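tool=predict chain=A
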Amino acid sequence: MSGDKKAQGDTAEKKHDWIDLGLKAVTPIVAGLLIAWAGFVSNYTLSSISNNQQSARLITELQIRREQAESDLRKDVFDQALQAFLLKNQQYDDSLSGMSKQLLRLELLSLNFGDSLSLSPLFSEFQKDLKQLKPEKNKIPNFEEERGEMRKRLYSLARRVASAQVSSLHQHGESKKISIPLEYKITPVTPCATLLYEDSFPWPERDLQRNFGIFDDNNKVLVQDAELRSLFNSDEIKKEYRELLNESRLIELQGTQRYLEVRLSDVDHCNESAKVTVIIYKEREVDNNEQVTPLASIPTVSARGDLALISNEGLEIEVKRSFNLDYFNFPMVDNTRLSNNQRFAIVLDEFDLESNQPHLELIGIVFPSEYASLRDRPGMQEARKLLQEALKDNDSE
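tool=predict ok
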């Protein structure tokens, strides 16, 4: 028995020795394979990273070179077109052919640099030169027709530039379409001096006043002062009138509510322009100790003037501007600064005199200042205010 146990022990020891020898022999091989595999993976990873970095660097360099080439090309086009436009040959440009070439240069400038240049003076100057062309120096039978076609081409170019800018700004801002009918009371001998109504057309007040039966579709007064005082003697009617008006003229961007009012007068048929007064209201900040005048105490004695008191109670004027509006107003350049780093612009979209219902189509748009023209950036005070607001937001977070 003891001999068998001893033989079994020797066999177990021999097996154990073989296992140890096997482990000792295999371990370096496995370790070497693992090290080789790790080295391969590391090299592959580093190589992939290096290739990706090299590809990214190559793509970046190509992009920079392409943008540089485009900038150089735009610079050359700008220099040549602007120089040819400003240094024009008066004798050559007194003809329709010369004006056509000038219009081509204006198209190059407008379509390539319309978002960074103030092009309105160039358009106005071209229109002035076109108007001053003399038929005796252009001995063609259809001179007036050709000049009319060139004027249409000029207006079409201006509308194309303005429409492209409005579409771009609309993606970041808020716009409102304004339709104003053209109904006339006074028709002087000269059509270009035709006036719109006797005073001015207020939008959107007049549309609402028509719904209340104060004016008819031809801007004729239907309600006299005594009836008007009786109509707005109720607080409910005053409140309804104000709420409906504010709903029509509200234009809101980034949490800031404003109320737009447009007054139109002095419509010029020949030049397709009009005098526009833009009034932008914002909610008035009221101190805790300040008492707000209730609607019931707002007088309705002086008739239509008090409708403005009812409409603008609790509001204050932020901007009020009057200017001549035509197709040559471009929103990215021709705009007005507002609070909260925002801008407002208004453009003439359509001047319809041929349909059964002649009207003007305007577009008012509010947008952030960073999308304005490259030449018009915030001033030091505005930049400082923006920085303070940004720091305040970070502290609150």
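Residues 60 and 66 are 10 Å apart (CA to CA). The first helix runs from residue 2 to 86.
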